[in-house]
Design a protein that fits this description.
Chain lengths: 447, 565
């Protein structure tokens, strides 16, 4: 018996280790990505989005300042049939929007706005509206020419200064946005690198785990094949031992006990002839001779059952010709026997295994099926022999591990012949046991 | 992420946060077939108007923007007549004499040109028209906006009109006026006049613009300075006082093309909505003291959802959700889609995209637009006429100069369906649409459409209903209120449904629809209750009105019905 190689170990530990490494890598990467995304979100909320909102408000302020510039231009053009004071409502409308924009801009202004910048913007706007109010007062008082002069000298200059200040803030925002964008780009680059690294590490882990698994599987398959061979070898030895034992017992019964009983019978016959007719002893001798004859018959029957000598002497076909009628008589079932028209020349070990398989199948029919009729078919094709035992009884399906020794032996014998054994269910019910054996394993012919 | 995509994201997030639109018409969803056809009956009706833009190759800015049209009952016979505004040849390029054209309804589906007899064969570079009985004599008068001097024609009541521009106090003003409307802003019973002006333009200072860098094209308004709208207060003695400055309307940045009256804050004082081209729209809230305050920005209607000032052209206001709160439609330039605003709290929300109006209108340049119940199912539908401003646009962009008009059927639940191809082949023809008005010229209880095209023929579409829907029409006459009852609100209740309409002048683009109100009733054959809120503040209730009739109601004097429409 060959033992397992000592270096064989369970692959579970290695596989769990690989899984742990992979999971750890994914968890570590997830944590890394989460941290980067949090950083990006913070950057966008705190810097980029705020910067954009601030720029939007600055653009709105710029737009209002431009509207004021256009209104002042219209006021100075003096081509409307309305007094300067008519522009008051337009100025108020722009002022309302401008102050709203300034308020919102102050709320979202970027962090690096200096106090001086804030103060300059606030005071410039206040001074502009103060100047505008004074100009409208002049206009309402009928001093339109003086008001226009003030617009030209003061208001336009204040508007231009404000516009410049806002433009400067927009440029500043743009620079800040560019810095933040560059920072974001660096984060994306880092994340991209990490993604590639994780991808490479994952691929390596998958490769290593896969190779390890393949190696483990190959070892397992080799072990399974070895076990199967060992089991098959054991079974063959068991069957061979069984057959030689049965043959020996059969021959002993036939030769030794048969001859002894035959001699006893002859001696009793001769002794009986020497006694006077009608003596009581003669009657007793006759009864003993009958017992000896019955015993001889039973010994011969048992010998045939254990190992038909006929198999060795006349081959499978003759044995079956003898055996099947015997089964009919003993089991009380009708056997429909079909065999090739030409003589079958199957003998030797092959004949024994075939005989045993058919014997076990017929035993199962007799014991379990409840059938009163059974078909035994033997066919021979160019490639294989086919042996079938079919009944239409209660049916029989081998139940995996629960199958008995008889079924195990049938399968082992089939494998010894290099054949295949099947249990099938005929359409009419019952069981069909079919044994297919390659022709070269049995030799002979039947066609 | 650039600024544009950021703003788009903000806009989408804002729209997605809105409650679902549930207050549209509660009528059963309409079938695939609209139940009516629009048939071009222009020629068979005897209408031969053709707009003269004066185009001679100079591509002068006003040449691409005219003109308007109106349904009016100038002779008070109960049948809607038609007025077309016309341009003229530019000095130095005189080819023909073209004037306004007034068509009298012959009451048999045809019209007769009575321009000369009515005294309206006046040559002017006309743009738009507003019809209103400013002197409360019972006959509608006509204000024609022009490039140059606007004209006010007083209806003598004898089938003729007299030019009273100067004696009314409207003379002596040169501008590029566009849409106009009559509205009693101070509720004194006399209609005041609101006039939109586009830009400061003169033939001598026309700017060279080009789409392809070589050939002159019509300019967009960025090339010109804005011009304030005007508000004229009716003194009640046939003269007007310019209150533009004192009312707070004065704004030299505006480039206005369309105007509509509405009651934005539902205080029963008329407010004014102005569609501006490349400038923020203006919503002037009436402060009940003769002054107005622009609240367009806080109302959410000044800009698009992306914060852009679009090229507003035509505008209409109506309760298209049957919620009792009026929404707004504004046509815009191509690639800007129609702005469809639903009333939401104190302001508006643009629901063009989710309503199904936005995408089909995105490649159209819209001008006239009106809400009307085209299929009489009780839910106001939307019609817009389209056409580009320059025929060379096709050389630089995949946009056509002539574009088919569009009909969006209101299916309720906030969803409109573009049914332009389902109402007959006549409506599908591409045209360079400008003005648009509706009116029931054949008195069959449904609304017919009148459209003008730039430098081309006008088209009269007769609505032929076959779906079996019913309607009632209401004609109001004010006594304490202005005689036309402009500003009155009528609400009807039938079954579980409610509808409301306002009698209004203006709206659309350069045009005016009829003053009588038409309510589609679907399969209902009765109206349980009809409520009128007069501009004077009085209210009246009437019950059990029968479908298939026109009801005439005189303020404080009860209601009468005609047998039929």
């Amino acid at each position: 018996m060959t033992g397992f190689p000592s270096e064989n170990r369970s692959p579970t530990v290695g596989l769990i280790l690989g899984l742990a490494i992979t999971v750890s890598a994914v968890v570590a990467y997830s944590l890394y990505i989460s941290r980067q995304i949090s950083g990006l979100r913070a950057l966008q909320n705190d810097l980029l989005d705020r910067d954009r909102r601030d720029s939007l408000q600055l653009l709105r302020i710029q737009n209002d300042l431009n509207s004021l510039a256009l209104a002042m231009r219209d006021m100075l053009d003096n081509d409307e049939p309305y007094p300067l004071a008519a522009w008051s409502s337009q100025f108020q409308r722009i002022r309302a929007d401008l102050e709203d924009a300034l308020r919102k801009e102050a709320q979202v202004a970027v962090a690096d706005r200096t106090p001086d910048q804030r103060e300059y913007l606030r005071s410039s706007v206040a001074q502009f509206w103060d100047a505008a109010e004074r100009i409208f007062v002049l206009a309402r008082n009928g001093r339109e020419q003086e008001a226009r002069t003030q617009i030209r000298l003061s208001l336009e200059a204040r508007q231009a200064a404000l516009s410049t200040a806002v433009a400067r803030l927009l440029v500043q925002n743009n620079e800040s946005e560019e810095r933040a964008t560059a920072h974001v780009a660096r984060i994306y680059d880092g994340v991209e690198r990490q993604v590639y690294r994780l991808l490479a590490a994952t691929l390596v882990a998958i490769l290593v785990t896969g190779l390890y698994r393949i190696r483990s599987n190959r070892k397992l398959f080799a072990q399974l094949a070895l076990l199967s061979d060992q089991r098959s070898e054991l079974a063959q030895k068991l069957i061979s031992t069984q057959e030689s034992t049965l043959r020996y017992i059969s021959r002993e019964l036939h030769d030794e006990f048969g001859q002894v009983l035959t001699a006893i019978g002859s001696m009793l016959t001769r002794a009986g002839k020497e006694l006077p007719a009608g003596s009581a002893l003669g009657e007793d001798l006759h009864q003993v001779r009958q017992i000896a004859q019955n015993t001889l018959d039973r010994v011969r029957t048992l010998s045939q059952a254990l190992h038909p000598v006929m198999l060795d002497e006349a081959g499978l076909e003759s044995t079956l010709d003898w055996y099947l009628p015997a089964v009919e008589r003993q089991a009380g079932i009708t056997i429909r026997y079909e065999k090739p028209a030409t003589p079958m020349t199957i003998d030797g070990e092959g004949a024994i295994h075939i005989y045993r398989v058919l014997q076990e199948a017929l035993n199962n029919v007799a014991r379990h099926s409840g059938a009163t009729e059974v078909w035994v078919r033997i066919r021979c094709s160019a490639l294989e022999w086919e042996f079938e035992v079919e009944d239409h009884g209660s049916g029989f399906v081998p139940q995996g591990a629960k199958r008995g020794m008889g079924l195990v032996a049938m399968r082992e014998r089939a494998e010894l012949l290099g054949g295949r054994l099947e249990w099938l269910k005929p359409e009419a019910g019952g069981t069909l046991v079919r044994l297919r054996v390659p022709r070269e394993k049995l030799g002979g012919h039947g066609d | 992420m650039n600024r544009r995509s950021f703003l788009r994201g903000v806009g989408l997030a804002w729209v997605q946060g809105l409650p679902p639109l549930r207050r549209f018409a509660a009528f059963p969803s309409q079938p695939a077939a609209p139940g009516f056809r629009l048939v071009d009956v222009t020629a068979s009706a005897g209408i031969h108007f053709r707009h003269n833009s004066g185009a001679y190759g100079g591509k002068l800015l006003p040449g691409t923007l005219g003109s308007g049209c109106a349904f009016l009952d100038y002779d008070n016979d109960g049948w809607q007549d038609i007025l077309f505004v016309n341009g003229m040849d530019w000095p130095g390029h005189k080819r023909e004499r073209t004037t306004l054209q007034l068509y009298r309804n012959n009451r048999n589906g045809t019209f007769t040109d009575i321009t000369r007899r009515a005294g309206l064969d006046v040559e002017m570079y006309g743009m738009g028209v507003a019809v209103g009985d400013y002197n409360n004599d019972g006959y509608p008068d006509i204000l024609v906006t022009c490039v140059g001097q606007n004209r006010l024609f007083r209806n003598t009541g004898k089938g003729t009109f007299v030019d009273v521009t100067h004696e009314s106090g409207l003379g002596g003003r040169q501008a590029f006026s566009t849409s106009a409307l009559w509205v009693d802003v101070d509720r004194d019973g006399f209609l005041d006049l609101f006039v939109c002006n586009y830009v400061k333009w003169s033939k001598e200072h026309d700017v060279f613009c080009s789409l392809d860098g070589t050939h002159k094209a019509y300019c967009t308004p960025e090339a010109y300075r804005g011009e304030t709208c005007w508000l004229f207060h009716n003194r009640g003695n046939g003269t007007f006082e310019d209150v533009t400055a004192s009312s707070g309307i004065f704004d030299t940045s505006s480039k206005s093309l369309g105007a509509a009256m509405l009651d934005y804050d539902e205080d029963e004082w008329p407010d004014l909505l102005v569609a501006n081209d490349t400038q923020p729209n203006k919503l002037y809230r009436n402060q009940r003291n003769g002054s107005f305050k622009d609240v367009a920005v806080e109302a959410g209607i000044a800009f698009s959802a992306e914060g852009k000032a679009r090229a507003g052209m035509g505008v209409d206001v109506a309760d298209f959700e049957n919620s009792g709160h009026a929404g707004v439609a504004i046509t815009n330039f191509d690639n800007e889609m129609i702005g469809l605003y639903r009333a939401s709290g104190p302001g508006y929300v643009d629901v063009a995209t989710e309503s199904g109006v936005g995408l089909p209108s995105k490649d159209k340049l819209g001008f006239g637009c009106v809400f009307l119940d085209a299929d009489l199912d009780g839910a106001l539908d939307l019609v817009a006429v389209n056409g580009h401003i320059d025929e060379t646009v096709r050389n630089v962009r995949p946009v056509r100069y002539a574009q088919p008009p569009q009909l969006f059927l209101n299916g309720g639940g906030g969803v409109f369906r573009d049914a332009s191809d389902d109402v007959g082949p006549d409506f599908q023809q591409p045209r360079v649409g400008r003005g648009l008005a509706y009116g029931d010229f054949d008195r069959d209880g449904d609304l017919d459409l009148l459209m003008t095209t730039n430098n081309g023929p006008a088209v009269l579409f007769r609505s032929d209903q076959w779906g079996g829907n019913r309607s009632i029409r209401v004609r109001l006459t004010g006594t304490k209120s202005n005689r036309d009852a402009i500003g009155a609100t009528v609400r009807i209740f039938h079954g579980p449904f409610t509808q409301s309409r306002m009698v209004k002048s203006g709206s659309s683009y350069l045009s005016q629809s009829e003053l009588p109100l038409t309510f589609g009733l679907g399969r209902f054959d009765r109206v349980d209750r009809l409520e009128i809120r007069w501009p004077s503040g009085a209210s009246e209730d009437y019950k059990d009105l029968t479908a298939g009739r026109t009801y005439t109601c005189v303020e404080r004097k009860g209601i009468n019905s005609l047998l039929g429409f």
